[in-house]
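Fresh eyes needed here. Have a critical look at this protein's tokenised backbone.
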Amino acid sequence: MVEVPENSQQMTADTLFDGEVYCSQFRNGYRFSVDAVLAAHFHTPAKGEKVLDLGAGSGVIGLIMMHRWKQRIATLRSLELQQELCDLTNRNYAENEFAEKCSCYQGNVKEILNIFKPESFSLVVCNPPFYRPETGRQCLDTQAKIARHQITADIFGFAKGAAAVLKNGGSAVFIYPAEQFVELSSALAAVRLEIKDLQFVYSYPNEQVNAKLVMLRCLKNGGRGVRIKEPFYIYREKNGEYSDQMNRLFAP
């Protein structure tokens, strides 16, 4: 067990998978949401995969991936802009006994090659900031606002960073608002990340409701050809319970 931080009164001790994974979070700062759970499960790593979680937050994507595929993953590194979130991610790795394979580095995605070597990862998973600086939830505190808003880098910056450290033929997973899919796909194409798997996420089944999110996997220099997966529904119905699809992601 790691030492409890001095500001523990400002933290919450949260768990996933019936208590099998521990994830400490700042009570009033950035907190992970369902998009991180979706992104972590979208692509099953190959054996020996070297993974980068690009924009770690509290480290939940790495925690989920290690819980699901610890034996497959050779190493898992994370990049996080904010030092306090980077420190928190490393504490969460240690608390779950993943520190032998996992570590988080503080830094800006624009300077990623000052932190990691070019083409040093076989899989990048990215849940980037969704909102432009003056859009989205403006009531957030500074930590959460930096994590959710494109203050230091836009989606092109994250796509460029992913491509720089991804080996030729490696995979990159992104999750992003569906209404910004054109912007995302343009950014990926500009750095030769070709979409291979694509899935739209809806709140619940309803022909009148637009997709909320888009998840995709792309290959570096992967060529043409994309597979469109069936829609993913988070809830069974409006204001209803989680769908079977969602419940499977939370199952131990």
Q: What stands out?
A: The chain has one domain: 8-250.
